[in-house]
């Protein structure tokens, strides 16, 4: 990709170990590297600029597979989640199949209870966080302050306008259109929210 196209918000693809993945450039790190968001997986990763390629139009129109989520009925003990809370949550998630119980889908965020059912007794994450002194049970869903900074999928993945009666719908990719200046014939088309 030409250097002028390597800008935050640019939807493209990256090759990693012979596999191609859709990515959105999240930020430029330096002359060699960028941080990208994987809209189909919901994670961030630093990759080399030389690994980036333009994406074919047919893949631009596919909806993102990642959905912004928040743990239901909990809030941090203090204003933001502590490192201890984040570490405990990661430990609960590592290499396990989890059961997700949907509480509600509001403003493009899926609020759910997470449960580890791999042991004799089910382990609910909100209870473990509460018992560990990392969270308070609040009985309602309040996305934490800085949700968009902590969860980049909230920046790029938004629900479609077809949502009615709080039904879960396929999300659309939402991009920063003003940052998508294209110099070459391949990149001459600007991403338009309506086309996605």
Automatic annotation (TrEMBL):
Domain Tudor: 5-62
Region (Disordered) residue spans: 172-196
Membrane-spanning residues: none
Entry-linked Gene3D superfamilies: 2.40.50.90
Compositionally biased intervals (Polar residues): 174-189
A Pfam family the protein falls into: TUDOR
Domain of life: Eukaryota
Protein name: Tudor domain-containing protein 5
């Amino acid at each position: 990709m030409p250097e002028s196209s390597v800008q935050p918000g640019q939807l493209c693809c990256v090759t990693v170990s012979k596999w191609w993945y859709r990515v959105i450039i999240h930020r430029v790190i330096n002359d060699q590297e960028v941080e990208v968001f994987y809209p189909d997986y919901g994670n961030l990763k630093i990759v080399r600029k030389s690994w980036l390629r333009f994406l074919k139009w047919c893949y631009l129109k596919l909806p993102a597979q990642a959905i912004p989520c928040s743990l239901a009925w909990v809030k941090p003990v203090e204003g933001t989640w502590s490192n201890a809370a984040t570490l405990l949550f990661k430990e609960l998630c590592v290499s396990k199949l989890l059961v997700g119980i949907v509480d509600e889908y509001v403003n493009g965020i899926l609020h759910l209870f997470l449960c580890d059912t791999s042991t004799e007794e089910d382990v609910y994450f909100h209870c473990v966080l509460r018992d560990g002194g990392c969270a308070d049970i609040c009985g309602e869903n309040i996305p934490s302050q800085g949700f968009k900074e902590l969860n980049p999928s909230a920046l790029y993945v938004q629900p479609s306008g077809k949502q009615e009666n709080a039904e879960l719908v396929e999300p659309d990719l939402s991009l920063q259109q003003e940052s998508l200046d294209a110099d070459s014939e391949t990149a001459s088309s600007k991403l338009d929210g309506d086309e996605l």
